[in-house]
Each structure stands twice: as structure tokens, then as C-alpha cells.
Amino acid sequence: MSITLRNVRKDYDAQTDVLEDISVKVETGEFFVIVGPSGCGKSTLLRMIAGLTPITAGEVSIDDKVVNDLPPKARKLTMVFQNYALFPFMSVWDNVAFGLKARKMDQSDIKQRVDKALKMVDLTELGKRKPRELSGGQRQRVALARAVASDAKICLMDEPLSNLDAQHRIKMRQEIYALQRKLGLTLIYVTHDQVEAMTMADHI
Ligand code: ADP
Known about the structure:
Blueprint: E1 3-13, E2 16-26, E3 31-35, H1 42-50, E4 57-62, E5 65-66, E6 77-80, H2 92-102, H3 107-120, H4 136-150, E7 154-158, H5 166-183, E8 186-191, H6 194-200
Parallel strand pairs: 3-8, 6-7, 7-8
Antiparallel strand pairs: 1-2, 1-4, 4-5
The structure holds adenosine-5'-diphosphate (ADP).
């Protein structure tokens, strides 16, 4: 699925435009990176694509359909954020299954998807653990597994690796890149790290 922004503008108050006039097309299956210093409006842009923040002017389209007025749920995308927002009292497995259960998906279908997603991020053995019993990198992989299980074709990631140490960051970069390719995801990835942007992006 592709995403098109046409003359998108955002101000949180009348005095300051955070984003003035953004137009870009993100192609299907593209690894698209938004890079820039802290405060320049990266998260705002991502949140507008997700539907979590209303846009002031312009158009956001998914596959040529304008989605300005669609709520996040109806946009068929998944998100992975910086502070991974796992439910602390749920097991890894239940965390990954949560969104699917909320969508009232069939039990056997849920099981199949969760198992497959955990396998893909190499967490099959840790399904019964609670988030606090995991390392930062493992927690981040749970968040990724959730995105994988959802089967959405668009994934939004906001600085997903910024809580990790250098070693895990490099490893996870490779894993995200490989997953994106394998699943053919249209991935929009926010970072302030220029090296990350240069090494991962098809389009910056
Ligand atoms: P980045 O992700 O690049 O660090 P943000 O999109 O978070 O930047 O923020 C861009 C600008 O918008 C900043 O000046 C920030 O203070 C401001 N901003 C972000 N969210 C809000 C909000 N909910 N209300 C008012 N101003 C905001």
C-alpha cells in the first residue's frame, strides 16, 4: 500500500507552523525514513499519517484514498513506538495477541499468527515471560512481533531503537530491515540518527 501526502500542514497553535507544506509519495514496499533533529516535527508527521494527530491542512491518502477523516483503526496500519508500550502484566504471547483479540479474530487464527510472529523475531521460547523479565532488545522485538502478527501492510515506527545499546541497535536494525523486505511492508521510520537513515532507507 502506498501513502501520499499533499501539501500537509500542521500547527498546534495559531502562532507556529510545525510543518508547513509537506508533499511526498511513499511507494508500496518502500523503506521510507524521516530524519531530522529533535523537535523538527518527525513524530508529528508520523502521528498525522497514523491518524492520531489531526492535520491542519492538506491531504493524506492511502492507496489513493483520502483518509483525513478516518480514525487510526480504519487506516489498517501498525505502529511501533519508542517506549514500546507493552502491557506489563500480560505475557509476551498475550501482548502480541492483544490487538488480534480486540479485533475478535478467530482463536485458531490468533494462535497461528502469534506463534508465527514470535518465531520470526526469535522469541518463541520466551512467550510465557512478562515484559519485565526481558531485555530492552527483546521487548522491542515483542513490539515488532505485534506489528508482524497484525498483517497490516503499512508499519509506522517512531525511533524504535533509541532505547537500545549500540550493539543491540545494530542487530535490530538488521532485523527490521530483513523483516521489512521479507513481508514487503511499506515502512515509515522516524529517526534522528543519520547513519540509521542512510543505511536503511530506500527513500529519505
Ligand atoms: P520530533 O519528533 O522531530 O522531535 P515533534 O513532532 O515531536 O518533533 O515536535 C515538533 C514540534 O511540535 C516541537 O516544537 C514540539 O514542541 C511541538 N509539539 C509536539 N506535540 C505538540 C502538542 N501536542 N502540542 C503543542 N506542541 C506540540
